[in-house]
Amino acid sequence: MLKLISLNIELDKHYSRIIDLLDRENPDVIALQEVPKEFLNQIEDLGYKATFTTRKQILDGKGKSFEEGLVLASKFPCETVVRSYFEVSHKTHLSSVPATKRGVDTLEKYSYIMAKIKVGGEIFNIVTTHLIVTPDGLTNELQTKVVTELLQVIKNEESHMICGDFNMPRGYNGLYELFTKKYADQIPLKYKSSLDKNLHRCGNMQLEQPIFDEYMVDYLFTQPPYRARNVRLEFGVSDHAAVIAEIYK
């Protein structure tokens, strides 16, 4: 058995909350999304061996570029591999960056990290990824391509569990059913949304979509022989809730 936390940390906005959570919960494995590469030092200072893969380059308000991506880290011995499954080019239009930087193509890479974690005499295959977002939570052509490519690549892996920010609200987004054909959703149905109204940038806005009531987007999916217990969401950490669970066979 191992204890896992999966969380979209929203770049550098919640570092102290995240460190407090990790100190308090002391998970064996952490899977993080939207991570600035600089945060690896703090993760490793807590005793984790961390693997990072870049999703994209981000320009901050001063026009400085930094890498944002995925992290999978373990306190147990592990071997990791990164698999890329899709790339898409975007234009930078942020008004907060210099005009000379706007309109420049930025490449967004979609990958997953898979770790083979040795716990006693057992091996646990843990995967994390971050899928593309859509404006209304509903599927579109690009998101369908990304999900299709992911499922095509990952089907060749050994049996595993996969967690992260999937950006496909159950009950709204039809791609969710593609996952539940192959995996069991371990997030209890009592949780209707994993977005944190108090910390999300849209928390005080009047929105057409009920994102804080019915948008579950952070998941933990399992295949046999993997199972999860004591699964819960912890709010007050980032704009997304942390998924906390015990993984066992």
Could you characterize what this model shows?
With 249 residues, this protein is an alpha+beta fold. The chain is 16% helix and 41% strand. A 6-stranded mixed beta sheet has the order 3-4-2-1-12-11. A 6-stranded mixed beta sheet has the order 5-6-7-8-10-9, with helices on one face. The model is unreliable at 92-104 (pLDDT under 50).
Helix content: 10-25%
Mean of all residue-level pLDDT scores: 89
The order of strands across the largest sheet is 3-4-2-1-12-11
> Rg from C-alpha positions?
17 Å
Query: Total helix count?
Result: 5
Shape: globular
Strand content: 35-45%
Q: What order do the helices and strands follow?
A: EHEHEEEEEHEHEHEEE
Uncertain parts? 92-104
Major sheet, described briefly? Answer: 6 strands, mixed
Quaternary organisation: single chain
> What is the β-strand count?
12
- The helix/strand class is alpha+beta
Distance from N terminus to C terminus (CA atoms, Å) equals 7 Å
Features:
single chain; six-stranded mixed β-sheet
Structure at a glance:
The chain contains five helices and twelve strands. With 249 residues, it is α+β, with helices and mostly antiparallel strands.
Task: List the SSEs and their pairings.
Blueprint: E1 2-8, H1 15-25, E2 29-36, H2 40-45, E3 49-59, E4 65-74, E5 78-91, E6 105-119, E7 122-130, H3 141-154, E8 161-165, H4 176-180, E9 184-185, H5 211-214, E10 218-222, E11 227-234, E12 242-248
Parallel strand pairs: 1-2, 7-8
Antiparallel strand pairs: 1-12, 2-4, 3-4, 5-6, 6-7, 8-10, 9-10, 11-12
